[in-house]
Amino acid sequence: MSSSTLPRGSKILAGLAGILLCLGYLSIFRPNRFEREWSIDVLGGHKAYEESAPTHTRANATFVILARNSDLAGTVRSIREIEDRFNRRYRYPYVFLNDEPFDDKFKEHISILTDAEVEFGVVPKDHWNQPDWVDEPTAEAWRDWMVGEGIIYGESVSYRNMCRFNSGFFFHHPLMQKYRWYWRVEPDVHFHCDIDYDPFIYMEENNKTYGESTAPQFGKHISSPEQGFTISLLEFPETIMTLWDTVREFTNKYPHFIPQDNSLNFISDDGGYTYNMCHFWSNFEIADMDFWRGPAYQAFFQYLDAKGGFYYERWGDAPVHSIAAALFLPKDKLHFFDEIGYEHPPYYHCPKNGNNWKKGRCTCDPDDAFADSDDDVLEIHAFGVVRGMEAISIREV
Predict the structure, then answer these.
(1) How far is CA 389 from CA 263, 267, 378, 379, 380, in A?
(2) How far apart are CA 243 and CA 318, in angstroms?
(3) What is the pLDDT of residue 60?
(4) In a 3-state reduction of DSSP, which class is residue 111?
(5) Which of 128, 87, 94 is nearest to 111 (CA)?
(6) Which one of 14, 113, 189, 393 has the fewest beta carbons within 10 angstroms of its own beta carbon?
(7) Of 81, 285, 313, 339, which is the active-site residue?
């Protein structure tokens, strides 16, 4: 019997059966959902998980990593952890900077770790090397003195180059010019918790400028969700003997840069007469480069740089950034990232507030992260108000 002689109902059933049969064959040869999410590296013989492209709105932001070719192993570990904990879902780009060209091995080993854009740049010599106007015999004498005093990096010109570059130049690098926000990452750091939101977008939407995330045993623990940092430390006084005098000179000369609701009391215990050596640990920073590029900080850095203290002493980028953020920003522009578990050995921050530790599936122990003695902790409550203190204008000192 031909198909033309089949009853009309039978023809419809036969047609449906044919369609189902075709779909069945397609399902055999067409990759399914799981096959689309996993790609087979035939040459390497391993499966690599491919996240779907980010669908949320991203900030104009990048990671920035200052490293050398010899830092490859530690840099790989840092990137692998920030990818696993955060960036495989967001795919923010990376900018790697070095005072000499990165070799092909470094580039290859880094590039395979992420699907995000990765750029490698060289720091200009005039942004890195000790300036010619620095009196080298004087600088050498001070380096020798620091070596005799057992001060860490006391002998190192390279370390001083790095501090000066991070203080005043990284945000001017051509590869950084197209970005507004940055997240600083260093070799051999650890991210202990899942980060299930976008810190860049949080900072942008909440009108924050500077963020940080850790507190060591002999520093000050900033426990407010309204401040943008993780760790605060005490600086070695011998490395910044004239820094605060220089800061006071600058603020007396340019008082209009200081808002009334500043955070002077974070960096001074006597109303600005002396510096208490407290600073944010700047190897973790999420911040708005418009602040560093702005008139207040540019004038501040140039004033400091002209004094030569980065080389005659050993002024670090951590106290320089911290003093600037405390003096030139209203305190509600700062943000503390309690939920970001971060470690730069030997110190680390582990979330303590609410259920941040559990929610982040953290691998750190919050009981071991730092000492919570009264001497170590500076409580900062909602909206960044220091307990028992008010913002004081350094102009009045």
Answers:
(1) 10, 12, 11, 11, 10
(2) 12
(3) 98
(4) helix
(5) 94
(6) 14
(7) 285
Contact in structure between 177 and 293 (CB atoms under 8 Å): no
DSSP-derived pairing of the beta strands 210-212 and 285-288: antiparallel
| Inter-CA distances, 131 with 163, 296, 299, Å | 14, 23, 18
Six-digit token string for 361: 């599936």
Q: Residue 121, exposed/middle/buried by CB under 10 A (0-12, 13-18, 19+)?
A: middle
For tokens 């530790």, name the residue: 357
Phi and psi at 80, nearest 5°, equal -60, -40
In this prediction, residue 349 carries a pLDDT of: 83
User: Rounded CA gap, 306 and 312, in Å?
Assistant: 11
Tell me how far the alpha carbon of residue 43 is from its chain's centroid.
Answer: 35
Amino acid of residue 321: H
Alpha carbon distance 114, 83 (integer Å)? 7
Give the Cα separation of 375 and 47 in Å (integer). 51
CA angle at 244 for the pair 307 and 159, rounded to the nearest 5°: 60
Written as one string, the DSSP assignment of 332-367 is GGEEE-TTS-EEETTEEE---STTHHHHTT--S-TT
Task: Write down the pLDDT at residue 48.
Answer: 36
C-alpha 393/C-alpha 107 separation (Å) is 48
pLDDT at 9: 53
CA separation (Å) from 260 to 95, 197, 329, 387? 36, 32, 9, 17
| Rounded Cα distance, 102 and 89, in Å | 27
**Type of residue found at 339:** E
Is residue 117 part of the annotated active site? The answer reads no
Listed residue (316, 321, 319) closest to 289, CA to CA: 321
Report residue 314 CA to chain centroid gap: 22
3-class SS at 213? coil
> Given this model, what pLDDT does residue 287 score?
96
Tokens of 343: 């470690």
User: Mean pLDDT in each 10-residue stretch from start to end of the chain (397 residues)?
Assistant: 50 51 42 32 32 72 98 98 96 98 98 97 98 98 96 95 98 98 96 94 96 49 36 69 96 97 91 88 88 98 98 95 95 89 83 87 81 33 24 32
